[in-house]
Amino acid sequence: MAVVSKNIGRVSGTPSPNRARIGREVVAKLENNPHIRRAKVENAQMFTYPDFLSEAECDMLVALIEAAARPSTLLAMHEDPEFRTSSSTDLDRWSEEIWPIDDRIANVLGLPPANAETMQGQRYTPGQQFRAHCDYFHEGAEYWDKMVEYGGQRTRTAMIYLNEVDEGGATWFPRAGVRFKPRKGLMLIWNNMMEDGTPNYDTLHEGMRVLEGTKYIVTKWFRENAWIRGHVPTYYAGGEQRT
Question: How far is the C-alpha of 64 from the C-alpha of 2, rounded, in Å?
Fold first, then answer.
């Protein structure tokens, strides 16, 4: 599910040393990766990783999204029926296709795989969109206590474009002043928190309306603590399980 508040606006919060530490460690990891570029924005931490997925991997994920697409949902009610009009697919993280990609994303960020939510695929056909929203949870919302039970706040978002779009479909961060055009295989990473661990409203972003063609993406959200309870096996090349 995606997060949305009826009252879009700056969210205050208590500084979190744990989230601040996570932010510093992830930035250090990303900045030391020669494949990754930091976006030139001042009020949010954003990075791009071109060609993170191969063409074959992108095509495989598109096929999985198409096979099980359902109307996208929101975590909170919204009065605008056009707020989120895409389709979504929850991808099986333990499947042979998803497991290695899942672990690669976590490894790039330097975050525990257990902190990651299930990878979600999204499809946008002509006319569909996801209006401006933030990915972090609103800690004063009714759902917050349930989110705390399952890993707490969303600290990072990793989103990968699976194809080019004929027209429209960019990811726009209006407060940060940057827009990303879909490029096949490109991973976009951003910190949903500020440096002190409070929610960063400047990560407000919009999946702009697709005008021609179809847009496919996958999104991976990371919590500040473990989202999965219990032992999490780790995938590595060869398909065996490492404990």
Answer: 20
